[in-house]
């Protein structure tokens, strides 16, 4: 059903570019991995927009790491495992909590300036964390500060070449080994970038849904191209919906950080009632999936499209200093975070699953690595603990580079050609198709799911697979093809898992079932669907 390659080509006819490491995507995963690799290797970074465009840039809350004397890796480990609802890899979590602090020191050495208080790093607490361990920058602009520091360093590194506005169509593989990527330049010309190691840092797939905190570029490209290349795709039924995205006419679904609730903000329904006590003893600081579903339940009960977040107990000065970006964005839409209740609703935020890797970021395809949100390292399980994503990117980015340094050079020149694909007429404009897909995913594979809805959604999505017989040539067409693959995998995985766990909630199977479902769903284009037990936690 899904072809190996999206376009016809013959590597012998393509221009060749050689590099040691190709990093696909930017964000904290791409930038950090590129900078570490560039200490000894030549690196080519390929971004479909620019170094400054990624999910990282919009990350507000911060980065989780054990810095305080009152905290410990054991506490961080326990919090991560509890949030992950029985599907974390204990080995991967151990790596994260023990290596995270030195990764943060690397970020600081690379120029990241985290907020200080009385000569020490200012730490905050977020939902489901037992300790204050979240470092932040400029109050609520942590991601933007990290991207600023790392992109400035990358631009000045003589071992890093950056290709902005380029699109990776597919990975070039032969005999389950990756030799680089097929890249389309802004003028439409295609080139084979040959590399000793290929690192996917393409971020998430928020654009699967109509309402998302992710930028337009988060179209699941890495998951889809890895799937076509034969990599294992794991746990994609687990999608995290952030509970509190701004929900206001004319405003984008802008993230109202979890840290706002960490600093004491409360949730109210449209009748002004505080409601979280009816759902969880941790109230507003319950795990994200519980808070998000509670909000949807209140919206349904009150026939509203939003609830309120109330931060009016704090002074205007405190609100401005702690959350300057959120304050300014709200103000630009006529809302004052310090005196108004802010209307919010859940929005797609983070993909817990992705391309399955080992503890050094390598996939089951040789020389192919994945880092950041595109990967499934085992850290997040069924529900990511807040602010662990930035930590995961730097910890596993460092490990990927360690593995690359030990790899022998590849001297094989692959003889790959794809000429058997049908070359039907160009497809119709995909803007409308993309919106229909997003609406379908919200309706059938969103926060609340059922067999009937998921099957209907999957059947409707399958009607689009004739797309792969068309002649694809534009970036929007490749993106839609990638979204289609991700949506098919996500709905199928959600249909298979007949229980509720973490970010996956089935109304027809509302209970968690550890006896049967403490396992992973793994997709492979060649080998089909397999299941892996998770007995190590």
Helices and strands in order:
Layout: E1 9-10, E2 16-24, H1 27-37, E3 43-46, E4 63-64, H2 73-83, H3 90-109, E5 116-117, E6 120-121, E7 123-124, E8 134-135, H4 142-155, E9 160-163, E10 167-174, E11 177-184, E12 190-200, H5 221-228, E13 233-234, E14 239-246, H6 258-262, E15 266-268, H7 288-301, E16 307-310, H8 316-322, H9 324-332, E17 342-351, E18 354-356, E19 368-370, E20 375-376, H10 388-406, E21 417-418, H11 431-444, H12 451-462, H13 475-496, H14 514-517, E22 519-524, E23 528-533
Parallel strand pairs: 2-3, 2-12, 3-9, 12-19, 18-20
Antiparallel strand pairs: 1-21, 4-8, 5-6, 7-8, 10-11, 11-12, 13-18, 13-22, 14-17, 15-16, 16-17, 22-23
Tag the structure with descriptive keywords.
3 domains; FAD/NAD(P)-binding domain; Flavocytochrome C3, Chain A, domain 1; 537 residues; 23 strands; single chain; Methane Monooxygenase Hydroxylase, Chain G, domain 1; 32% helix; alpha+beta; seven-stranded mixed sheet
Describe this entry's structure for a reader.
The chain is of the alpha+beta class and 537 residues long. The chain has 3 domains: 9-238 and 352-406, FAD/NAD(P)-binding domain; 242-348, Flavocytochrome C3, Chain A, domain 1; 427-511, Fumarate reductase/succinate dehydrogenase flavoprotein-like, C-terminal domain (Methane Monooxygenase Hydroxylase, Chain G, domain 1). Helices cover 32% and strands 20% of the residues. The chain contains 14 helices and 23 strands. The protein has helices spanning 27-37, 73-83, 90-109, 142-155, 221-228, 258-262, 288-301, 316-322, 324-332, 388-406, 431-444, 451-462, 475-496, 514-517; strands at residues 9-10, 16-24, 43-46, 63-64, 116-117, 120-121, 123-124, 134-135, 160-163, 167-174, 177-184, 190-200, 233-234, 239-246, 266-268, 307-310, 342-351, 354-356, 368-370, 375-376, 417-418, 519-524, 528-533. The strands form 6 sheets. Strands 2, 3, 9, 10, 11, 12 and 19 form a 7-stranded mixed sheet that branches. It has a 5-stranded mixed sheet with strand order 20-18-13-22-23. Helix 12 runs antiparallel to helix 13. The two termini are 36 Å apart. Residues 20-390 form the FAD-dependent oxidoreductase 2 FAD-binding domain. Keywords: FAD, Flavoprotein, Oxidoreductase, Pyridine nucleotide biosynthesis.
């Amino acid at each position: 059903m899904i072809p190996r390659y999206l376009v016809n080509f013959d590597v012998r006819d393509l221009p060749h570019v050689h590099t040691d490491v190709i990093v696909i995507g930017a964000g904290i995963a791409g930038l950090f991995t590129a900078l570490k690799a560039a200490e000894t290797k030549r690196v080519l970074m390929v971004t479909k927009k620019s170094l400054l465009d990624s999910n990282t840039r919009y990350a507000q809350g911060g980065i989780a790491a054990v810095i305080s004397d009152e905290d410990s890796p054991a506490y961080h480990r326990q919090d991560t495992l509890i949030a992950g609802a029985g599907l974390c890899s204990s080995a991967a979590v151990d790596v994260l909590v023990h290596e995270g602090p030195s990764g943060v020191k690397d970020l600081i050495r690379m120029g990241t300036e985290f907020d200080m208080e009385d000569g020490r790093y200012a730490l905050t607490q977020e939902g489901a964390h037992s300790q204050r361990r979240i470092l932040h920058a400029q109050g609520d602009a942590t991601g933007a500060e990290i991207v600023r520091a790392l992109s400035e360093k990358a631009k000045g590194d003589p071992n890093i070449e950056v290709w902005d506005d380029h699109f990776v169509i597919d990975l070039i593989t032969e005999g389950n080994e990756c030799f680089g990527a097929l890249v389309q330049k802004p003028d439409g010309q295609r080139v084979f970038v040959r590399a000793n190691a290929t690192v996917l840092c393409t971020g998430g797939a928020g654009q699967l849904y109509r309402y998302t905190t992710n930028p337009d570029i988060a179209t699941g490209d890495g998951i889809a191209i890895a799937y076509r290349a034969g990599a294992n795709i794991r746990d994609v039924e687990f999608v995290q919906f952030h509970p509190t995205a701004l929900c206001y006419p004319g405003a984008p679904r802008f993230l109202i950080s979890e840290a706002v609730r960490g600093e004491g903000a409360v949730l109210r329904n449209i009748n002004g009632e505080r409601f979280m006590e009816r759902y969880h003893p941790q109230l507003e600081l319950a795990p994200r999936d519980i808070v998000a579903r509670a909000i949807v339940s209140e919206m349904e009960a009150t026939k509203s499209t939003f609830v309120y977040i109330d931060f009016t107990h704090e002074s205007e000065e405190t609100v401005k200093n702690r959350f300057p970006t959120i304050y300014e964005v709200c103000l630009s839409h006529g809302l004052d975070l310090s005196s108004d209740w802010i209307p919010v609703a859940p929005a797609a935020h983070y993909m817990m699953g992705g391309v399955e890797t080992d503890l050094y970021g390598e996939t089951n395809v040789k020389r192919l690595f994945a880092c950041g949100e595109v990967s499934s390292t085992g850290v997040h399980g069924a529900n990511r603990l807040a602010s662990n994503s930035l930590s995961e990117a730097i910890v596993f980015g460092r490990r990927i580079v360690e593995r690359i340094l030990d790899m022998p050079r590849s001297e094989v020149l692959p003889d790959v050609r794809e000429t058997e694909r049908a070359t039907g007429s160009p497809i119709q404009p995909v803007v409308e198709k993309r919106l229909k897909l997003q609406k379908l995913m919200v309706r059938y594979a969103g926060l609340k799911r059922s067999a009937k809805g998921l099957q209907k959604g999957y059947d409707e999505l399958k009607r689009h697979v004739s797309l792969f017989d068309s002649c694809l040539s534009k970036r929007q067409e490749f993106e839609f093809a990638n979204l289609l693959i991700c949506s098919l995998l996500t709905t199928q995985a959600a249909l298979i898992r007949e229980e509720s766990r973490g970010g996956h909630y089935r109304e027809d199977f509302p209970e968690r079932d550890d006896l049967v479902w403490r396992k992973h769903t793994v997709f492979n284009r060649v080998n089909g669907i397999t299941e892996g037990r998770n007995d190590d936690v």
